[in-house]
From TrEMBL:
Pathway: Cofactor biosynthesis; thiamine diphosphate biosynthesis; thiamine diphosphate from thiamine phosphate: step 1/1. It comes from Candidatus Marimicrobium litorale. This is Thiamine-monophosphate kinase. Reaction mechanism of ThiL seems to utilize a direct, inline transfer of the gamma-phosphate of ATP to TMP rather than a phosphorylated enzyme intermediate. The keyword Methyltransferase does not apply. Mg(2+) 1 binds at residues 46, 121. Residues 149-244 form the PurM-like C-terminal domain. It catalyses: thiamine phosphate + ATP = thiamine diphosphate + ADP. The keyword Magnesium applies. The gene is thiL. Substrate binds at residues 53, 261, 303. Mg(2+) 5 binds at residue 213.
């Protein structure tokens, strides 16, 4: 970056570091975050590359918000309380108008998730963001991928496939009618990580994962980590009115099962627990391994090809 790297940091990346968890924010060699007694630190990092994770020309406020949401989604899946984040950002140039909008998106995310921006790194090069998130969970309470038990109910929050549908709209591959296009663009640009739901699930879910790679892939990861199989009912997977408006039902279902970028939570509940509000039951945990979707073999293989070629 130019000599004024420090004034750039001061102008665009400072002042978002206030919060109860912050003892020391931006400006020193490290930030200092507070944990409560009996808590553990959970941390994760997530990178977004221009043209790979979002289309070139994505408005900067959305680039920032989306990158934070993608990272926070991992905290949500563990049931963590957000503490703070750091942002390593590589910028092609110090464009003031672009940076002002970028900061707007960052500020919106800081506020949405109560997640202060406590540090980072700023360099020049092709646009790329790495968001490292830190959160806290009471000892022994983090929801892992590995806890699913045979007989559990498999649930998912929200609507699936909107991320892939939104990308199709943004790339001009699909023109849904009003108001679906605007809804889907928002779902792609401004995904909302399910932090409150994750914290609620901490008390009774046996396992959880956030849906970032595609529902089938992520259920597969959870099943493998737990040493179980999953029977999925594809028809039970919730689709938004926007996706249901698609002429081709197979395309909509493929986006929901394999699309990725939804940032919903997929989780397992022991028998007797109803899914919380806004979540749906989509299958069950069974003995064995892998994900069984009934007779929908085409969709599964379609997904595998899709996944192998997906630029992420
Ligand atoms: P150091 O050389 O010790 O790594 P830097 O000179 O890179 O520190 O950064 C100075 C301060 O500004 C540090 O507190 C750092 O965390 C913060 N900072 C740098 N870039 C960003 C950014 N993109 N977002 C938030 N804070 C940043
Ligand atoms: Mg230093």
């Amino acid at each position: 970056m130019p000599d004024d790297e420090f004034s750039l940091i001061e102008q665009y990346f400072s002042g978002l570091d206030a919060g109860g968890s912050v003892e020391l924010g931006v400006g020193d060699d490290c930030a200092i975050l507070r944990l409560e007694t009996g808590e553990r630190l959970v941390t994760s990092v997530d990178t977004q590359v221009d043209g790979v994770h979002f289309p070139p020309g994505t408005p900067p406020q959305h680039v920032a918000f989306r990158a934070v949401s993608a990272a926070v989604s991992d905290l949500a899946a563990m049931g963590a309380r957000p503490l703070g984040m750091t942002l390593a950002v590589t910028l092609p140039q110090a464009d003031a108008a672009w940076l002002a909008l970028f900061r707007e998106g960052l500020a919106a995310a800081v506020s949405e998730y109560s997640l202060p921006l406590v540090g980072g790194d700023t360099t020049r090069g092709p646009l790329c963001l790495s968001v490292q998130v830190m959160g806290a969970v009471p000892v022994g309470k983090a929801i892992k991928r590995s806890g699913a038990q045979v007989g559990d109910t498999l649930c998912v929050s929200g609507y699936l496939g909107d991320g892939a549908g939104g990308l199709a709209v943004l790339e001009g591959r699909w023109q849904p009618g009003h108001p679906h296009a605007a809804y889907l663009e928002q779902r792609f640009y401004r995904p909302r990580a399910r932090v409150a739901l994750g914290r609620q699930l901490r008390d009774y879910a046996t396992a959880a994962i956030d849906v970032s790679d595609g529902l089938l892939a992520d259920i597969g990861h959870m099943a493998a980590a737990s040493g179980v199989g999953v029977r999925l009912e594809p028809d039970s997977v919730p689709l938004s009115a926007a996706l249901l408006s698609h002429d081709n039902k197979d395309t909509a279902l493929r986006w929901a099962l394999a699309g990725g970028d939804d940032y919903e939570l997929c989780f397992c509940l022991p028998g007797g627990h109803e899914p919380p509000a806004g979540a749906a039951c989509i299958g069950e945990v069974v003995a064995g391994e892998g994900v069984d979707c009934g007779d929908d073999i085409d969709i599964v293989s379609g997904y595998q090809h899709f996944s192998a070629s997906a630029p992420r």
